[in-house]
Design brief:
The structure holds 2 protein chains of 2 kinds.
Chain A lengths: L1 H10 L13 H10 L3 H4 L21 H9 L15 H13 L16
Chain B lengths: L3 H14 L30 H11 L4 E4 L6 H10 L6 E4 L3 H15 L4 E5 L2 H15 L5 E6 L10 H4 L15 E3 L4 H15 L7 E6 H5 L23 H12 L4 E5 L6 H14 L3 E3 L18 H7 L2 E5 L4 H5 E3 L6 E3 L6 E6 L20 E4 L2 H14 L9 H20 L9 H12 L4 E3 L7 H5 L20 H12 L5 E7 H4 L5 H7 L5 E6 L4 H13 L20 H6 L4 E6 L5 H13 L4 E6 L4
Helix pairs in contact in B: 2-3, 2-7, 4-5, 4-17, 9-13, 10-13, 15-22, 17-19
Classes of the chains: A mainly alpha, B alpha/beta.
């Protein structure tokens, strides 16, 4: 499915190289909760169990792909259109998601070491 | 003795006499003779319900779960006094839904059928959803409904409201068989028949109505009564020609995949599943309706299931409820169809699904055409299938073992890495919750009373025993998990098996009184709350609908959350006599709390730790 997504992006004139608009991380976290992104993706963008939603962070989509997925999502995600999620709020959300740090590797977490 | 025959005879006489003395019904049925043993000083030292207890004993039914009710008061009294409340023991429940689900969980942990009792009307109505779960999950439960068939004997008022012409009518769409015996001999024969039918695959709940007067009246001719011998039916094996054809197809396949759902009944079943998978070197996608397959085996590839099915040239379905859904998908909410499997994939299904299907409730799932359809019990058929595969000669995948081992290790590494995401988050990630729970279980002989396909437990934990993962409810009727876990813990308590459950908050609140049942009966169960303070799936459904309707989504928590006020599950448990801690929001505090809880469970008591979690 990934190639379908990439073709769709190219048809809209977007590219992965597009720079993200300025956003506020603190407001972004509040918006992430307000618009309930966390219900499927977890409060730190970790994704959720049993197929609720994929992880968003660390290393989120580039801005163009992120915006495209939010506005015109593929598969089961509901569309967050501009009238219900203003551009600035989306930019803030992206700013927050970009700041989410990578967790330690599984090998560094005793509870997750292979038996 | 008031049996159906005398009742009908009396009823006929009443009809004949009605034109003569219409007012006779206002008068008492009979006047007691002083000293005759009838009336106020009447004693019934050997009621019919004593014999009913004998019948349950003959079937080795250890427990009867029930909320007490007048329509089976005599049966109840016989259990506790005549039977000394042992084999069967009365398990006091605060809701009939709990009674059925306890029996459901008990069977899945023990392989033994349990009974429950309910009023023939309101009790059965309470029980109905849980019976449906058992039906969908192919689990036998002996349902006993109390009822007073003889209207002339009913007390005015509530007793009428609590009786019905056919108590099983409400359940008949999702039970295998029922009867309303009119005599004690009839009761014995029908109860043994019901037990036998319920335990014959496809296993399902059955119902026997115990007439109130039959229970309460004296046994008239005890010497004339007998309890039939129970001989369980051997489960049906697959037809030999069809099994041979299936073996040929599988042995010649380049990329066979085994998809299993409700397969194993015992450890022997797991051993056979391993033998089958190894004979084909075929990966197994375990939908976890039962334990089915060890998660430690290199052919256990559930997390890679979609890709494996996509690339398969032959798929062997083993008692899969929805094979169509494994090969195709329909998106939500746009209902777009997508084929996952190859168009020419060959399909084999061994299932008893075609043997017992009813019309009204649609748990049969979408029709899935297959190339070879074998109507049989899987575990009973595996030996002949394995033998037939081995006779086919060389396996084209025999040289792939090392590659398959590597793919398995890669899958496990991916799962562990994905579990690190949100590791220190609060609310606590479900991966962290499961990893913490594993720390207190890993050195025990353990059972997870409810275990879902795709859950962190299924993905992370090494599980090899039939009792490790007991699967799900079957019908996805909410309210199953808490009582089923109590039932599983009841079955496990004398076996040295520690029973744990990851307990969703919404599920517990359907009938939280089951915690009291666990405390009252000293049933050791470790409940770890998956407290996301919502019916989380419904939050996501609301978001989908709002997106579909182009409306705001920040309202999706209205009507879907369980907050403001937050429920204090530790207090809820403590109020019912269960040791409890929480709510815990700091992941670092989970481990010590679980260790304290485990110490309580090991002493033979239930314990609950409330953990505030991410949605999923």
């Amino acid at each position: 499915m990934k190639w379908v997504f990439i073709i769709a992006l190219s048809l809209t004139g977007n590219s992965f190289g597009q720079e993200a608009p300025a956003g506020d991380v603190k407001r972004g976290y509040a918006a992430f909760l307000k618009y309930q992104c966390y219900t499927c993706h977890g409060t730190v963008g970790q994704g959720a169990d049993r197929g609720a939603g994929p992880k968003l962070a660390p290393n989120p989509f580039p801005w163009a792909g992120f915006e495209f997925q939010v506005r015109t999502p593929r598969q089961d995600m509901p569309a967050y259109r501009q009238q219900h999620l203003p551009d600035q709020d989306l930019a803030d959300i992206y700013a927050y998601v970009r700041t989410i740090k990578a967790p330690p590797a599984a090998s560094a977490i005793p509870l997750l070491k292979a038996d | 003795m008031s049996n159906r025959r005398t009742f009908l005879k009396g009823a006929a006489a009443t009809i004949a006499a009605a034109t003569v003395t219409a007012q006779a019904a206002d008068k008492p049925a009979a006047k007691a003779k002083p000293g005759s043993g009838e009336g106020l000083d009447k004693v019934i030292s050997r009621p019919g319900s004593d014999f009913m207890v004998d019948v349950l004993r003959s079937l080795n039914i250890d427990y009867v779960a029930s909320n007490p009710a007048s329509s089976f008061r005599s049966f109840h009294e016989s259990i506790v006094n005549y039977g000394n409340n042992r084999k069967p023991e009365f398990i006091t429940c605060l809701h009939e839904e709990s009674s059925v689900a306890i029996a459901h969980g008990y069977y899945k942990a023990s392989g033994r059928m349990m009974a429950m009792m309910a009023h023939g009307s309101v009790g059965i109505q309470h029980a109905a959803m849980a019976v449906y779960n058992a039906w969908c999950d192919r689990v036998p439960v002996m349902l006993i409904g109390g009822n007073f068939m003889d209207a002339a004997q009913r007390r005015p008022g509530v007793e009428w409201a609590h009786c019905s012409q056919s108590p099983a009518a409400l359940l008949r769409d999702y039970i295998k068989w029922d009867d309303q015996p009119a005599s004690l001999q009839h009761f014995a024969e029908s109860t043994v028949r019901a037990y036998k039918m319920a335990m014959t695959p496809p296993m399902e709940p059955v119902m026997i109505v115990a007439d109130g007067m039959l229970q309460e009246h004296a046994i008239e001719d005890e010497k004339g009564l007998s309890i039939p011998k129970l001989v369980l039916t051997a489960p049906p094996q697959g037809e030999s020609g069809a099994v041979r054809e299936a073996a040929k197809l599988l042995a010649a396949a380049q990329n066979p995949v085994i998809v299993a759902e409700r397969v194993t009944r015992s450890q022997e079943g797991i051993k056979l599943m391993v033998e089958l998978a190894e004979a084909l070197n075929a990966p197994v996608v375990n939908l976890l309706g039962r334990m089915n397959f060890p998660t430690t085996h290199y052919l256990s590839r559930t997390s890679d299931g979609r890709g494996l099915v996509r690339d398969a040239d032959v798929v062997l379905f083993l008692e899969v409820g929805d094979p169509w859904g494994q090969l195709n998908s329909i998106s939500d909410p746009h209902h777009q169809y997508r084929r996952i499997a190859k168009p020419d994939v060959k399909l084999i299904h061994i299932t008893l699904g075609d043997q017992l299907m009813k019309s009204n409730y649609q748990d049969m799932q979408r029709f899935c055409p297959v190339d070879i359809s074998i109507s049989a019990d899987v575990q009973a058929t595996l030996p002949s299938l394995i033998e037939s595969i081995k006779k086919q000669g060389s396996n084209p995948r025999a040289g792939r073992t090392e590659a398959l081992r590597k793919e398995y290790q890669q899958m496990k590494a991916r799962i562990r890495e994905s579990a690190t995401l949100g590791w220190d988050a609060s609310p606590i990630s479900t991966a962290r919750l499961h990893a913490e729970l594993w720390q207190v279980l890993k050195n025990e002989n353990w059972c997870l009373a409810e275990s879902r396909f795709g859950s962190w437990a299924a993905r992370l934990w090494p599980a090899t025993q039939q009792h490790n993962f007991l699967g799900q409810s079957g019908g996805a009727g909410v309210g199953y998990i808490a009582p089923a876990a109590v039932g599983a813990a009841l079955a496990n308590k004398d076996k040295g098996i520690i029973t744990a459950v990851v307990q969703p908050d919404g599920d517990l609140m359907y009938a939280p009184g089951v915690l009291w049942t666990a405390a009252h009966h000293r049933i050791p169960l470790l409940s770890v709350m998956h407290n996301n303070r919502a019916y989380h799936q419904e939050v996501m459904h609301l978001q989908k609908m709002a997106g579909l309707h182009n409306r705001r989504m920040d309202t999706a928590r209205i009507g879907t959350t369980i907050e403001d006020p937050n429920i204090d599950y530790a207090k809820l448990a403590q109020a019912q006599g269960v040791w409890a801690e929480g709510p815990i929001t700091d992941p670092a505090k989970i481990g010590p709390a679980l260790q304290r809880a485990m110490a309580v469970v090991k002493k033979g008591e239930p314990a609950l730790v409330d953990i505030v979690t991410q949605g999923r």
